[in-house]
Amino acid sequence: MTNSACPLCEGDGGLLVFRNHDLRIIQASEAGFPAFYRVIWNRHVAEFSDLSPTERQVCMHAVAKVEQVLRSELQPTKINLAALGNLVPHLHWHVIARFDWDSHFPAPIWGAAQRPVDEEKTAAIASRSHDINRLMAEAMAL
After folding, report:
1. Mean pLDDT of all residues belonging to the chain
2. Which of 2, 27, 54, 91 sits 20 to 30 Å CA-CA off 62?
3. Cα 139 to Cα 133: distance, rounded to the nearest angstrom
């Protein structure tokens, strides 16, 4: 089931890292946050409770895998998980590696910046994206 008015039904929603029958993992293009990923349910549903119990397990397994790879590879200060869907009511989880030096920490990335973007540190994280994306795809294939 898709919804032609939904941007997550019409496209991947970012750089595709992994896709299977149920879901996909994308790296989001969010300035200043190079370790921002989304786990997107392929079928158009609005809420987590719209999934069957088995589907909920599949979805959270993917969220945990993304989190584990980010923690292992980047050693962030914290991982933020969110499933807001207020602007795009298609089930997706945000998985965001946060660092005590990032522009918004400790506030949410959608809030006010706390400091300027550290371009050097942000670029260092971004330079690892290809390898991190490969590791995520491999982890999901297991």
Report:
1. 96
2. 2
3. 10
- pTM, to two decimals: 0.95
129: its two tokens? 């994206």
Please list, in sequence order, all residues whose beta carbon lies within 8 angstroms of the beta carbon of residue 31, skipping any fewer than 6 positions away.
117
Which of these, 88, 114, 84, lies nearest to 99 by C-alpha position?
Answer: 114
- Residue in 8, 140, 133, 135 with CA at minimum distance from that of residue 61: 140
Sign of torsion, CA 27 131 31 64? positive
**Tens digit of each residue's pLDDT (9 = 90 or more) over 73-99:** 999 999 999 998 888 999 999 999 999
Determine the Cα–Cα distance for residues 122 and 124; give it in Å rounded to an integer.
5
Cα 20 from Cα 18, distance rounded (Å): 7
Any idea which residue has 């941007």 for tokens?
7
Helix residue ranges per DSSP H, the chain: 7-10, 53-74, 119-126, 129-141
Sketch out the chain's domains with CATH numbers: 7-141 (3.30.428.10)
The residue type of 68 is: Q
- Running DSSP on this structure, what letter comes out for residue 56? H
